[in-house]
Amino acid sequence: MSEPSSQFAQAFRGYDKEQVDAELQRLKDQIEQARRSAVGSRQEADAQIAHLREDMEAAESRILALQAEVAEANSRAQSAEARAETLGQEVMDGDDENPARFAEILRVAEEQAQTLIDGASQQTERMHEDAKNQAAKLRKEAEEDAERILAEAKHEEQQARLRIQTEKSAHEAEIEERSATLDQRTQQAESEAQVIVAEAERASAALRSQATRETDALRTEAERIMREAKARELELDAAVKRREDEAQQEYLRLHNQALAHAERITQDANEKVQSALQHANHIAEQSKAFEDLARAQAKQVEASAVAKSNSILSEAQTRAQSIID
Q: Residues of the signal sequence (predicted)?
């Protein structure tokens, strides 16, 4: 009647509570079923004993009936004997002249009466003996059946208790063994978890260090680009300044030449001065246009450098954050 024990699923630091409760409930159900089976066997034995008692009571009633029949047979025999005496007396009273015939009738009557009495006595003794034997046989069979049924019920109850105790001990031993194995596995899992956590912390520290180094490198690169952009801007400013100085010097030179020519040339002074002024204005306009172009280029280079620097910094921060995460 034993069933294969189910394997418990392992939970953290122990067995799954629902499965343990289910297994305990199954054991309780088996115990209750065995108890009901024992009670049913005992009730069945009690019913059979009651039935045997009814049979014994019926046998005793039969014995009483047979005894009544024996008493009735004895009564009939006594009645027959009394009647034989009565007949004998009547014969003696009515037939005094023939004593031989009277004696013969009396002898026959006495023989018949004795035969009836002997037959009734034998039948009574035989019926009484049969009733006693039947009652003893029924009583013995009833006692043997009752003892056998009680012994079988007790044996079945003992076997059920033994099976229940054996299964209970086996389950307890299995639970203890699984608990010890689970504790060992739990300790091993905790040790492995500690190793994994330590390795993860080392890996995380290494990644953070790498991210910091890469971030520093990217920041250094961005700063270098900014410095180069600033240097380029300064170079452009210096070039513009040189062009402005050159234009100013050229203007001064031409102006001086114009003054010198004005002194030397009186007639064409106005025309040459005018021409020189126009030429100087033209050069000044070109210088101004070049200056504006140079400044625009410098601003464009600076804006491009700043945008590139911001892009590099943003990319560095994104890579660093992804490495840290």
A: none
